[in-house]
Write a structure and sequence with these properties.
The complex is a heterodimer.
Chain A lengths: L1 H20 L2 H28 L5 E8 L2 E8 L1 H24 L13 H19 L3 H19 L5 H32 L12 H18 L8 H4 L5 H10 L1 H16 L4 H22 L5 H24 L3 H32 L10 H4 L1 H15 L5 H19 L3 H26 L6 H4 L6 H25 L1
Antiparallel strand pairs in A: 1-2
Chain B lengths: L2 H21 L7 H26 L5 E4 L4 E4 H30 L5 H23 L3 H19 L5 H35 L9 H6 L6 H19 L7 H8 L2 H30 L2 H24 L3 H22 L1 H33 L10 H4 L1 H14 L6 H15 L3 H25 L15 H19 L3 H17 L26
Helix pairs in contact in B: 1-2, 1-4, 2-3, 2-4, 3-4, 3-10, 3-13, 3-18, 3-19, 4-5, 4-10, 5-6, 5-10, 6-8, 6-9, 8-10, 8-11, 9-10, 9-12, 10-11, 10-12, 10-13, 11-12, 11-17, 12-13, 12-16, 12-17, 13-15, 13-16, 13-18, 13-19, 15-17, 15-18, 16-17, 16-18
Classes of the chains: A mainly alpha, B mainly alpha.
Chain lengths: 479, 523
């Protein structure tokens, strides 16, 4: 099983090398094959882990003297998130093979090997980060994802895109300083980099290490005050936006925090207060920024920021002793990955076939491009948490846990109520755009839409299915 | 050949090669192949010889020769190995680069012979600097490196390169004169207090008896040594010669200056730091190194962000990295010293790659100005890809090697109780990363100019870079066992050698007594 886990990490890295050396014609197929193999391996890992009774295990990979530098951890948390990042990685690569072509109306451009190589590197680094059992391992993959995001966001080589790429790299690198500190501090205090060592720290050191991890997490998950890179990163090709800002890069942050909480045992409540407060502030900020957006991708960017705040809030609530909040948060990481990917990829499909993704010029999707209309509808309902779609099943336990905890910690109540109001308000806002774009007579751009290629259809349909199914998978997996 | 004979013989190789290279200008039509062959043989022998010596130093603590005038210990072996390995790779690259310059009429065959001749002389002086045991000899060797490389800096004879060479020749010897003053202070004090008067010029003897030295004089001497040899190592505020010299020299020479020469000067600072630490306690030299190191990192970081010239940017990055090495030594402790030594190796590998890359860019575009260099990835894809990897590595992105040593510096800093300094240092390194990716965004991407021919620059200019990239990855993921052992031994040597009591007994397995029996000065 360890070998399988290692394969999942190394296969995309190998694939990236092969892809980078391939001629442009075949690069995308090489990349598709490697990402498909990685996806198959991660599903095999999940099945194998499930059949072996879901027993958590750890193994060291690289050591310096007696100190483990890198290792693998295979447990419920890591396998579930790993499935999401690697499978979505495959779907995004498959989608890109159709999107990055000369037939694209908004961006006619044939994908270069560099694009697919960076994307594969990203998948490998994500898998590595999720499966790491040490803080150094997490830091290494954290930084690799940062470098890959730089390569991908600036892919179109326009000055603005290159600037946004630098912004993303530098802001997340500043965040990484927190992780540098956390890892070094853990080592100096316990003599090991293993995440399990977090449990042996005294309270003061724990607060310091967790603050470091939180800073790193805020940076990657685009939370205040390190959020500025994400809206600008929408300069990236849309499949990249889908992968970075729905499935992987932004999930690095929440996963780091979740993993640390999972390993650390009891954590001082001050971390919970800091986490909840920042989460609610960011959530409100994210919602307010919905209002002026006309570009679908930018709207989704701010929606991502506030959705991740919700996950941060849930994780912080678990500091106060709520297991329900933790499970809700992990389930929401999983569910949101699929729902938001679908949303971004719909935006991409609209660019491809209609040549625009500006919301005001889109109308009558359901009539002219039924698949895109349905996808838009499913994605919006999932994100805003309407049953029977997946968002509901992870948001509900989070709010339940919040209200349960408010009985003991009265100060939490206003924060949870604000979060609930935000959730309802964003539902209303998405409903508005849904009403404007999906039903009715087609606008000019939609009426002239070209058909969507089969690869894009396949990915969208898969994601629609997952938007219903993922919450059940997550619920049964987490038990 | 025993290792005692190998050491002086190894120094003779580039010296002889230099003489032959100068002489081969009279070989007529055969001059070019002949001088290239001489250079290639010299570099190969250099590589094999230094590797063998470094390998032997895994078994023994010290190899001395010429009555103790020369010695290589574990610490010296790290730097000697760097001269050998990086010198070899740059030497190979130089063949490809100079062939191009010759083919395009930038130089004639006579100047090519001169180039290889001075190149080998320069290598000889650097070998001398890392193997010298006589403290005065250390100064002589460092001065000699200036002489050797100054002609290379001004090699093209253009106005700007002559100005850079002039600046180099003025600033460095003036700076290093301070170093001489520090060296003489230690020597004269040694003459007064050492049991054997003749030993006073031997570094090993001075270190062995460091506790006898006068603390005030040692402090004063270390300040002079740090300023003097720090000038040569490119520490702020004595770095003014470095950006000009590095940017005006032919690219292989820039690589050699930055990746090898600066380390030699740093080694001498470290050697005197050991004496000072043993004589007056570690906090005095460490504090000075911390201050100079952090200042260098800080000032260089902001210069890096505003550069418009690739080679100048890389030169400031050398100041930054030498600062970081000094900073690591200043943090001290086993981890800090190990981090400093590791960073020395890592920086050399990466910077050699980057300057070679800048050479390829010069070949294609004819200028290192970022405003003119656009779309490298389209013009020369392999160079472009290597350049991206190198710049990211220089910025401390894993899985490359600099990440490992930078992380080690962070850990050493927290262990030494300097969290705020580390936080500041990491922020400054973020500025450096920003400067490097800004350079990449300006040069590697975008549309290529029409007047630049497409196609990469040939195997001899790409292969050394490829080898360097592999070495960077290997050092970043898992350093080979012998390298790790050598580093651990060197760090232990610095650590125990600068502690008052423990170093009194010679370590087991010593091939030669640490105090040479008779130096020529005693006779």
């Amino acid at each position: 099983m360890e070998n399988l886990a290692l394969t999942i990490i190394l296969l995309p890295f190998l694939g990236a090398l092969v892809t980078a050396l391939s001629p442009q014609r075949v690069a995308k197929w090489v990349a598709t094959v490697f990402s498909a193999l990685a996806a198959a391996a991660v599903i095999a890992l999940a099945i194998g882990f499930d059949q072996a009774g879901k027993l958590a295990r750890e193994v060291d990979l690289l050591s310096f003297g007696q100190t483990a530098l890198m290792g693998l951890t295979i447990d419920r948390l890591s396998v579930l998130v790993c499935v999401a990042v690697v499978v979505l990685g495959f779907l995004v690569v498959a989608y890109s093979t159709a999107y990055l072509t000369d037939g694209n109306r908004e961006h006619p451009h044939d994908g270069r090997p560099r694009y697919y190589a960076f994307l594969l590197l990203f998948i490998g680094a994500m898998a590595g980060l999720v499966l790491s059992s040490t803080l150094v391992g997490q830091l290494v993959f954290f930084e690799i994802t940062g470098a890959c995001s730089w390569g991908l966001i600036g892919y179109y080589e326009k000055p603005k895109a290159l600037k946004s790429a630098i912004k993303a790299l530098i802001i997340t690198h500043i965040a990484a300083i927190g992780l540098y500190f956390a890892a070094a501090w853990l080592f100096v205090d316990t003599g090991s980099f293993a995440l399990t060592g977090l449990a042996h720290l005294n309270d003061g050191a724990k607060v310091a290490v967790f603050l470091g991890i939180l800073i790193a997490a805020w940076g990657k998950s685009a939370q205040l005050p390190l959020h500025a890179w994400l809206p600008d990163a929408m300069e990236a090709p849309t499949p990249v936006s889908a992968y970075l800002h729905a499935a992987s890069m932004v999930k690095v942050g929440v996963y780091l925090f979740a993993r640390a909480l999972y390993s650390a045992g009891a954590v001082p409540e001050v971390i919970g207060w800091v986490g909840v407060t920042m989460a609610v502030v960011t959530m409100v900020y994210g919602f307010l920024m919905y209002l002026p957006q006309r570009d679908m991708k930018r709207l989704l960017a701010y929606s991502t920021i506030s959705q991740l705040s919700l996950i941060f809030m849930a994780l912080s609530l678990s500091v106060f002793g709520s297991e329900l909040a933790f499970k809700g948060a992990v389930a929401h990481i999983f569910n949101h990955a699929f729902a938001k990917s679908l949303f971004f990829l719909v935006a991409g499909a609209l660019s491809y076939s209609c040549g625009t993704r500006m919301l005001p010029s889109l109308r009558g999707l359901l009539k002219h491009t039924p698949l895109l209309g349905i996808s838009f509808c499913v994605a919006a309902l999932s994100i805003t948490g309407v049953p029977p779609f997946n968002g509901f099943f992870s948001k509900f336990p989070i709010f339940t846990a919040g209200f349960q905890l408010s009985a003991a910690h009265l100060l939490l109540l206003p924060l949870v109520v604000i979060a609930l109001i935000e959730s309802v308000a964003s539902f209303a806002w998405f409903l508005r755009w849904f009403g404007d774009t999906t039903p009715g007579e087609a606008s000019e751009a939609v009426a002239k839409a070209q058909p969507v290629p089969p690869a894009i259809c396949f990915v969208l349909v898969t994601l629609i299915v997952m938007c219903v199914a993922s919450s059940f998978i997550a619920a049964s997996w987490l038990g | 050949m025993t290792s005692m004979e190998l050491l002086p013989a190894l120094l003779l190789v580039p010296l002889v090669a230099a003489a032959l290279a100068f002489a081969s200008r009279w070989a007529g039509a055969a001059a070019k192949p002949l001088v290239t062959l001489i250079h290639a043989v010299s570099m190969t022998v250099l590589l094999l010889g230094t590797l063998r010596l470094a390998g032997e130093l895994l078994q023994v603590d010290q190899i001395a020769a010429l009555h103790g005038w020369m010695q290589v210990d574990s610490l010296g072996a790290v730097f000697l190995g760097l001269v050998g390995v990086v010198g070899f790779l740059i030497g190979v690259y130089a063949i490809g680069y100079m062939n191009y310059e010759l083919a395009h009429g930038a130089i004639d065959v006579g100047r090519l012979c001169n180039f290889y001749g001075i190149f080998n002389l320069f290598v000889f002086t650097m070998l001398l600097a890392v193997t010298a045991n006589n403290v005065i000899m250390m100064w002589v060797a460092v001065e000699a490196t200036t002489l050797g490389s100054a002609f290379l800096v001004g090699f093209y004879g253009k106005r700007s390169s002559l100005e850079a060479a002039w600046k180099y020749v003025v600033i460095c010897p003036v700076g290093v004169a301070f170093g001489l003053y520090g060296v003489v202070l230690v020597y004269s004090n040694g003459v007064a207090v050492l049991p054997v008067v003749g030993d006073a010029s031997s570094w090993t003897a001075l270190l062995f008896n460091a506790q006898l030295l006068d603390p005030t004089l040692v402090k004063l001497a270390f300040v002079f040594v740090l300023i003097g040899f720090g000038t040569k190592a490119g520490l702020f505020p004595m770095h003014a010669w470095l950006p000009d010299a590095h940017s005006e020299a032919p690219s292989p020479i820039s690589a050699l200056l930055s990746a090898v020469l600066l380390n030699c000067a740093m080694l001498i600072v470290l050697r005197f730091g050991m004496i000072a630490a043993k004589a007056v306690g570690p906090s005095f030299p460490q504090t000075l190194l911390l201050i100079f190191g952090l200042l260098s990192v800080g000032v260089a970081a902001f210069f890096i962000v505003v550069q418009r010239d690739i080679k100048r940017l890389l030169a400031y990055s050398s100041v930054e990295n030498m600062g970081l090495i000094a900073f690591a030594f200043g943090l001290g402790g086993p981890l800090g010293i190990l981090a400093g030594l590791l960073h020395t190796i890592n920086h050399s590998l990466v910077k050699a790659l980057m300057f070679c890359g800048s050479g390829n860019i010069l070949i294609k575009y004819g200028t290192p100005a970022m405003d003119s260099v656009k779309g490298i990835l389209k013009v020369a894809p392999i160079t472009g890809a290597l350049f991206i990897a190198g710049a990211l590595a220089l910025g401390g992105v894993p899985p490359f090697n600099i990440f490992v040593s930078e992380f080690m510096v962070v850990t050493a800093g927290l262990a030494a109780g300097h969290p705020w300094l580390i936080g500041l240092c990491l922020l400054l390194l973020t500025v450096v990363l920003a400067g490097l990716v800004r350079m990449l965004a300006a040069t590697v991407f975008g549309a290529a100019p029409d007047n630049v021919p497409r196609g990469d620059t040939g195997a001899l200019t790409l292969l050394p870079m490829g080898v360097l990239l592999v070495a960077m990855l290997v050092m970043g993921i898992r350093a080979p066992a012998p390298v790790g052992q050598l580093l651990a031994r060197a760090a232990a040597q610095v650590q125990t050698g600068s502690q008052p009591q423990i170093a009194q007994a010679p370590a087991p397995g010593t091939a030669v007594a640490p105090t040479p029996d008779a130096t020529p000065a005693a006779r």
